[in-house]
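Entry 14. Ran structure prediction on the chain below.
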Amino acid sequence: VFRIMDDDNNRTLDFKEFSKGLSDYGVLLEKEDVEACFKHFDKDSSGTIDFNEFLMALRVREEF
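Output, structure tokens:
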């Protein structure tokens, strides 16, 4: 999924690629919600999401 969303093949997702990728997969959100999701994925606030950030954001956390 990450590689498909990475349109310019630079191994990161910028906001445009992330937003387009969500839409391409049928995840239709308001711009504010896409921005919130992007911030959640972009842990280092670099303005891009790398593969490790992408994986960590999707990882299920179990809390005991």
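The mean pLDDT is 94. Will compare against last week's run tomorrow.
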